[in-house]
Amino acid sequence: MKRIFIGLLAWLILADWVVAEALPFKVESLVSDLRYPWGMAFITPAELLITEKGGAVKYIQLNNQVSKTIATLPVAQVGQGGLLDIALHPDFKQNRWVYLTYSKAVEGGYTTTLARGIFKKTQLKQIRELLVTSAISRAGRHFGSRIVFDQQGYLYMTIGDRGDRHNSQRLNTHAGKVLRLTAEGKPAKNNPFVKKPNALPEIYSYGHRNPQGMVFDLQTQQLWLHEHGPQGGDEINLVEAGVNYGWPVITYGREYSGDVITDKTHDPKMAQPHWYWVPSIAPSGMTLYRGKPFKSWQGDFLVGALKDRLLARVSLTDVQKGTEQRYDFHKRIRAVTEGPDGLVYLLTDQSPGELLRLRPK
Questions:
Q1: Predicted structure pTM score
Q2: Which of 110, 136, 185, 230 could form a disulfide with 131 if both were Cys (CB 3.0 to 4.6 A apart)?
C-alpha cells in the first residue's frame, strides 16, 4: 500500500510538472502580499493601481518593487462585496481622474456605488461618490462590477442582479444591467431608455446575471462582457444599446442544485451569447488581446476563472464558431488585463494574493 501511495504521489507531481511545462509562457510573480485583490489599472508601464476587497487602493511601482496603500475606502465588505474595480479616465494625463466601484451600506441593505478620486504624487485624494445605484438588496452577492471607457469618454459599469434574478428584466432598477455614464456619473444623453416611462436613464443594456469581466475594444469600437452564470451558462456577449441578454428567461445554465431554471435557451427578442460554458468555469476578469508579444493571441479573449482556477483563451470567428485553450494556474484568477507593454497581467483571488505577469518563452 505504501508503494502504491508513493507511486501515485509521484504521478501527481509529474502530472502537475507536465501541465506547468506545457504553458506557452513564463509566469512571473511581481507582488505576492495582496489581500484579495479585485481590479487593476496601469498608470505607466511600470506603475499601476490595485484594489483590495477590504477597501485599500494600492500603488505599485514595478521597477523599484514599491507597494503601498494610498487610500482606504469605507466599503461594505459583505459576501462578494467590497472594493471592486478601478479604471483611469481616457484623459488621465491631464485630469488625473481615477474611477472606483464598491459595495456600500445604505438604507435597506447594500448597493454598488461609483466614485472618483484624483491621483497626484502617488496619493489618491478628493474621492467622492458619483452614483449610488438603486441595486439595493440585503443579499451579499452579485454586485458586479467592472468599469471601462469607450472612445467617446463614456463610462460603462456592470451591476449584477443582486440575488434577485427577476431584477435583470426590470428597467426600474440598476440591478442586472450595464450602465453608460458621463465622466460625472450622469446618464449618457443618447442612452436607449432615456425617454421610456418608468425606466432608469442610466441603463444601456439589461438581462444580465452578474458580469465580472468587460472590455471596450478600441480597434473595433465594440463593448464585450462575460456573464458569471449559475451552474453552467457562463457567457461572452457583444453588448449593444437597448438589447436584452435574456437572464433569467433564457439561459444555458441550471440551478446549483441541478434543477431547471427555464427550458428556454433562445428567444427571438433576446440576444444569444457569442460563447458559453457548460459546466461553469466561474469567470471573472477579461481582456481582448491586441498586443505584439503574443502574436498568435491577436484578437482573442483572455478570461480568468475562479472555480476552475485557470485562464481561458477564446478565439471567436462568429456566433457559431470558436475555439478555447485553457491554461491551468491552480489559483483563482480574479482580474486579467493587457499591460502597456503588451504582456498579460493577472490578479489571484486570495490572501496573500499575487500580481502575475505572463511573458512569452
A1: 0.92
A2: 185
